[in-house]
Ras-domain-containing protein
Amino acid sequence: MSEFMKEYKLVVVGDGGVGKSALTIQFIQSHFVDEYDPTIEDSYRKQVVVDDEVALLDVLDTAGQEEYGAMREQYMRTGEGFLIVYAINSRTSFEELTALHQQILRVKDADNFPVVIVANKCDLEYERQVGGHEGRDLARHFGAPFIESSAKHRVNVDEAFTALVREIRKYQRPAPPPPTAKPSQNIFGHPHPLTASHSHLHQPTPRMPSTTGYDEHPVPYAYGQGYGHEEEKQREGGCCGACVVM
């Protein structure tokens, strides 16, 4: 396990009443806050281990009310990753996701950024207004993981935050160097012009017609082989307790 501890700035965003504070407090303090008290802005810190690496999480729980909308750009500038939360029993909160995601990309001046889509309150299945497939499809459109959670029953709470840490690490990881072309090939695998011009020196010598009276035919040789195709399979999540799509 690495002893180096990197700090990550995580921001929890979403419409008012979707359970952002309940998720955050359940993750940080391991208890559920039942009463609804609109948040202006609260910050929490927690040390965790993700994939054998120690991480210090600075979690910012934000206001979802419209009157605090002017504060969004300020915390969006400093956040390294975002949990975008909606409640499965509120279609209005789901419809806010695209605007939030676009605002994050605009503030960050980026085509993509580390986010995780969290469908909270999955314990209220009988009140569901947003289908699980809708959340998965939107997350796939954003290129983000999708998780259904319940802050009340602590379902997929830790998974949501650790998934975001993994997304941040992936985003911040240096890009691998470009592949080095072999002397006899370019980067696309085609023969290099300098070697291709001499390729006739290595081709088999054509056979002359037989003088014995028998027909002799050279065995043909192949010039190339086709490439196969692989099918990509996707796993669909099931119920609340198991719905984690990375």
